[in-house]
Amino acid sequence: MEAILQARSTPGVTGRFAPSPTGALHFGSLLAALGSFLNARAQNGEWLVRIENIDPPREVPGAGLGQIEALARHGLTSDRDIVWQMDSTRLHERVIDELVAGGLAFPCACTRADLPDSGIYPGTCRRGLPEDRRPRSIRLQVEEGSVNFEDAIQGPCLQSPAQECGDFVVRRADGLIAYQLAVVVDDAIAGVTEVIRGCDLIESTGRQMLVYRALGLPSPRYGHLPLIVDESGRKLSKSDRDDPIRHGPPERNLRRALQCLGHPPPPGLLTVDDLLSWAVEHWSLDKVPPGPCVTPVSSA
After folding, report:
1. What is the Cα–Cα distance from 16 to 8, expressed in whole angstroms?
2. Under DSSP, is residue 196 helix (H, G, I), strand (E, B) or coil?
3. Counting Cβ atoms within 10 Å, is residue 237 exposed (0-12), middle (13-18) or buried (19+)?
4. Does the pLDDT value for residue 298 go beyond 50?
5. CA distance 194 to 219
6. pLDDT, tens digit, for every residue of 232-271?
7. Where does the pLDDT of residue 130 fall: very low under 50, low under 70, confident under 90, or very high at 90 and above?
8. Confidence check: pLDDT of 9 > 70
9. Which of 222, 216, 170 is nearest to 194 (CA)?
10. Could you point out which of 48, 105, 181, 231 has its C-alpha 20 to 30 Å from the C-alpha of 220?
11. Among residues 87, 71, 56, which one has the least CA distance to residue 17?
12. Residue 1: partners with Cβ closer than 8 Å, 6 or more residues away
């Protein structure tokens, strides 16, 4: 596996923001981008942007470029060339082939209808395909046991992937690479050391740590930022076309995001550069609340 995954060795901290191009960048996405940006820059590290365009059926044409432009308006620019995840598909495929060859992943013939009501995969094809069944997907083999990690914001976390999902898909039945595999491979190749992202992704962390383990690689440090919800408690979502930040001035958007991150800026900081410079100087993960953070959609 080492011959395939030649991780970039960069001293110090490397963080990233990796949105899916399924809609306009909304306020919750800006919060995740800003948190990861400040965490890397405050440690004199690199901050990267990767557009995770590995699911074409869900992609909105032009959304990826729109997200990059929105980030730039808020002073958030990648320290390296922006990566489009689909460009790594051949590498993802090679990694999956190696996992299968090593007995760590296996072909599966099951459809969603074959799963129990719980949705937890029961290991049907783990020891081989049933007679007269053809492979559809590839699953990573998940052993019994828990995954423990110390989240930099949410605190101690304990997850049990075997009980929560069972053997999970790394290549889908439609041939597309599954998120859990692609995100780990691309983070490893980029040398990402810290993953600061929204709390809606915390449930994926245990599975991703298992992928790292299967690849023989150390996991990055994780920190999950507070969710952004509206006054009714509903999470903001690109799919619901919530709160496109193009409707608000960047300075106001950044000020609101910093408040949600526990870093309310003082008055008198009027420009994007002033706000970001102040935030980098004062950034501390210890100040970030676990959330959620309520913000009105209408004022964006």
Report:
1. 14
2. strand
3. middle
4. no
5. 9
6. 777 766 555 556 676 779 999 999 999 999 999 999 999 9
7. confident
8. no
9. 222
10. 105
11. 71
12. 95, 98, 102, 215, 216
HSE at residue 118, side-chain half, CA atoms within 13 A, is: 8
Owner of token pair 């989240």? 151
Could you check whether the bond before residue 265 is cis, i.e. omega within 30 degrees of 0?
no
Measured CA to CA in angstroms, residue 216 lies from 143, 161, 184, 187 at distances of 16, 18, 12, 14
Instruction: Please indicate, yes or no, whether the overall pTM of this predicted structure exceeds 0.90.
Output: yes
Give the span between the Cα atoms of 193 and 6, in whole angstroms.
15
Q: Residue 186: CB partners within 8 Å, gap ≥ 6?
A: 18, 50, 83, 85, 88
Q: Where are the domains of the chain?
A: 14-86+95-101+180-299
Identity of residue 213:
R
Single out the residue of 220, 295, 229, 299 nearest to residue 258, CA to CA. Answer: 295
Q: Where are the beta strands (DSSP E) in 172-287?
A: 194-198, 221-225, 228-229
Residue with tokens 């709390």: 199
Looking at the chain, the whole-number percentage of residues with pLDDT higher than 70 is 91
Residue in the block written with tokens 């040398």: 191
Nearest to 8 by CA among 35, 46, 49, 51: 46
Residue carrying structure tokens 């046991």: 145
Show the tokens assigned to 115: 């799963």
3-state secondary structure of 14: strand
As annotated, the active-site residues are 238
pLDDT in tens, 173-193: 999 999 999 999 999 999 999
For the chain, what's the residue count?
Answer: 300
- Residues paired with residue 223 on neighbouring β-strands, in sequence order: 196
Element (H, E) at 15: strand 14-17
